[in-house]
Amino acid sequence: MRKVQHGFTLLELMIVTAIVGILAAVAVPSYQAYVYRAKAAEVIVVMDKIKSVLAGLQSQTGATLGTPLKLGDNTAARNDMSAPALTYCISVQTKCVDGYKLVSGLNRGELEFKHLGVRLLVSSGYLHTDSPGQYKISINEATDITRHDPALHATAQQIMLAVHHVMKPHTYLNKVGHGDVYLYFNMNGK
User: What is the pLDDT of residues 38-59, one digit of tens each?
Assistant: First the structure.
């Protein structure tokens, strides 16, 4: 009587290994892109809040963002994450009338994503344009945080690209730099 052997041949094992490798090669990048898009959603939610705060500021002041309502960074409280992130002034002939005042509703800590290695910067207008209702959000890599962490550096780069990819259709102008992404918006849409 003949003894029947059970098991797989070397060829069968190699074929299965090749199939698993091909599936992994397709699935892993898709999974990583999904993870980065999910992390980018956190940044996008804050970007939506920025638009709401800026719309409220426009209605509160009665001025249009960019002209004559100018935004600035709250430099007085750089290290206080609970301090307001932005200041504003109403400019008349390129000069602020009453100096800069604090913008309520958005604190500095909301613009810092240390666990993602990025931070947001907000400004009004676009370069020397006087078109009303425009603002810019810069997504910058927080190099002071990512400098000594290569994995966080890679994450920051991917987050910036994912945010750019999702928000690009909603901008009138955008730019991808080495360590930053610039997104230009109109308050009333594109």
Answer: 999 999 999 999 999 999 999 9
For 42, phi then psi, to 5°, come to -60, -40
- The per-residue pLDDT for range 88-145, each reduced to its tens digit, is 998 887 788 778 899 999 999 999 999 999 999 998 876 555 567 889 999 999 999 9
Write the DSSP assignment of 97-125 as a string of letters. SS--EEPTT-BGGGGEETTTTEEEEEEES
Q: Domain residues of the chain, as ranges?
A: 10-63+107-186
Chain position carrying tokens 């910058």? 140
Give the Cα separation of 7 and 21 in Å (integer). 21
Whole-angstrom Cα distance, residue 105 to residue 98?
21
Complete edge-to-edge strand list for the sheet that includes strand 134-141: 112-113, 118-124, 134-141, 180-186, 173-176
Alpha carbons 17 and 8: distance in angstroms, whole number: 12
String of b and e for 34-53 (b: at least 16 CB within 10 Å)? eebbebbeebeeebeebeeb
Separation between Cα atoms, residue 6 and residue 43, nearest integer Å: 55
| 54: its two tokens | 């800026």
